[in-house]
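Hi U.,

Before I forget, here's the chain from the pilot set. I'm dumping it here mostly so it's searchable later in email.
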Amino acid sequence: MSDDTIQLGMKPIEIWPGNLEPEVCGDSTIHKITFTDTREYHPRLIAKILELEENRRLRKRYFRGACGTKIHHLDKWASTEAELITARARALFRKVLECEHAVVDLSWANVYRNGDYCLPHSHLRSTASIVYCLDPGDEAADDSQSGRFCFVDPRLRNCCQHQEGCMTTPFFPGMAAGTMLIFPSQLVHTVNPYAGMRPRITLSWNINKHALPGAALPADAGGEPQI
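Structure:
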């Protein structure tokens, strides 16, 4: 393995495929990219997450509107596939913010089951947040917005199409399998109630240019969990 690749089984995988570049997505502060080599690592990574979900000690489920079931700390999963996608998240941070360093403050998976959703929120202790779609889940025939990630922030022009500063229109950036999205952590975002039966699975990272003191996860420090 070199600094530019990660070995998955017998095959070296580029951390950043040279033919891909992030694109602006609706706002100059939001960028996304879709990786096309997902067959190389999605099946094993999805299987790993579903295995970890069965471990009561590792999984966190606070309430239905807190983004389904969470499994924190990708770096502790003993998964080469998780190492690869984390390396890609850090590379995306460095590219978009044009900096040399990218330090993960907190990382986690979200497993949404039927009826799960995520209340509108922002992220603490973070310059930029990244979300990656492993499996968007089932499409609902009677609800085209089922399980969709969106921004609901009055600072975004796309959310204020009728009056400046008045949030009337959720902004859906689009999240297919293999899509990675980076945005300022302070932007308010949410996930609509999921109506599918297959698990909807995403990964997330909060990243800064430098490490921060203290516990990244309030629950680790004995405080209240946050979504």
